[in-house]
């Protein structure tokens, strides 16, 4: 429970990183925070390996303690970060949330971000199970997940530049296209290379889709409205992601890997069409 609360705060850092940053540098700041996940993907497993057996017979006890220490160090680092507070009049101003939500494009932006996260988690959860069921070694499965994590966060070092150059909506759409390619590769076969390539495309697609959608969300709120709008966005995104996480294993056990892939294909297509068609209609208007 407390770990989930900590994760909820940590994921909000992508928005907090833009406080006090000029408009043209916000996408860069946000994507660099996402890029920090590369270090997490390397240090995290190493920390688990180093601490899991330090307190026998309580396996993983020291791992949880180490996790708490890492969080404490992060808190100390953040104490030195100074961001501008809201103006006095801004605290009580701002439009009603319902008015903000009804803005053209808001719902499809939130939906595309939610689908990007749900499909990523949906397939990432099921892929190791499928590899095991098809006789692929645990070592190969672990390597596939490691490459997936690198693909998730590695693009963060340049996604911001891509957003500044091509626009957040196009990067969001590119992410959804990569998610489609990930599904197609998965449907093409069950060799280890199919799984690996699918997971890599899945990671990059998630980064582009989720980061692009997060950048778009900031176009729908004023500075004094950011807390409620960003909180609503994350509530929807991670609520949908939770549904995908819980349903992935059940669908995998009942119907197999291909069913998981086809189940991922439909929402991605819907999100992509909504983003492209709605975006073009808005541009013509």
Supply the helix-strand structural class: mainly alpha
Q: CATH fold name of the domain at 95-284, please?
A: Growth Hormone, Chain: A
Instruction: Please state the overall shape, judged from the principal axes of the Cα atoms.
Output: globular
Helix-residue proportion: over 70%
Number of helical segments with 4 or more residues: 13
Query: How do the helices and strands follow one another from N- to C-terminus?
Result: HHHHHHHHHHHHH
Main sheet, how many strands, which sense, barrel? none
Q: What is the number of strand segments? A: 0
Radius of gyration: 20 Å
Q: State the end-to-end distance.
A: 46 Å
Q: Which CATH first-tier class of the domain at 95-284 would you pick? A: Mainly Alpha
- Bin the strand percentage: under 5%
Mean pLDDT: 86
From the coordinates shown, what is the CATH architecture of the domain at 95-284? Answer: Up-down Bundle
Low-confidence stretches: none
CATH superfamily of the domain at 95-284: MFS general substrate transporter like domains
Protein name: MFS transporter
Keywords: Cell membrane, Membrane, Transmembrane, Transmembrane helix
Organism: Klebsiella michiganensis
Domain Major facilitator superfamily (MFS) profile: 105-285
């Amino acid at each position: 429970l407390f770990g989930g609360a900590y994760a909820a705060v940590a994921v909000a850092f992508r928005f907090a990183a833009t406080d006090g940053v000029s408009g043209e540098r916000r996408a860069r700041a946000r994507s660099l925070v996402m890029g920090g996940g590369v270090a997490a993907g390397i240090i995290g497993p190493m920390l688990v390996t180093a601490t899991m057996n330090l307190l026998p017979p309580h396996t993983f006890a020291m791992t949880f303690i180490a996790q708490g220490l890492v969080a404490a160090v992060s808190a100390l680092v953040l104490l030195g970060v100074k961001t501008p507070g809201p103006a006095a009049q801004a605290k009580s101003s701002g439009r009603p949330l319902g008015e903000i939500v009804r803005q053209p494009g808001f719902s499809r932006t939130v939906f595309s971000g939610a689908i990007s996260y749900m499909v990523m988690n949906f397939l990432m959860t099921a892929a190791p199970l499928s590899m095991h069921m098809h006789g692929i070694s645990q070592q190969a499965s672990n390597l596939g997940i490691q490459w997936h994590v690198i693909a998730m966060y590695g693009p963060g070092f340049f996604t911001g530049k891509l957003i500044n150059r091509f626009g957040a909506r196009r990067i969001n759409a590119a992410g959804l296209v990569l998610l489609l390619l990930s599904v197609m590769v998965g449907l093409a076969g069950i060799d280890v290379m199919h799984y690996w390539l699918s997971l890599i495309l899945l990671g990059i697609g998630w980064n582009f889709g989720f980061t692009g959608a997060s950048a778009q969300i900031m176009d729908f709120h004023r500075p004094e409205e950011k807390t409620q709008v960003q909180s609503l966005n994350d509530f929807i995104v991670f609520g949908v992601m939770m549904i995908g996480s819980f349903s992935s294993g059940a669908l995998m056990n009942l119907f197999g890997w291909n069913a998981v892939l086809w189940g991922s294909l439909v929402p991605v297509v819907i999100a992509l069409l909504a983003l492209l068609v709605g975006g073009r209609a808005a541009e013509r208007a």
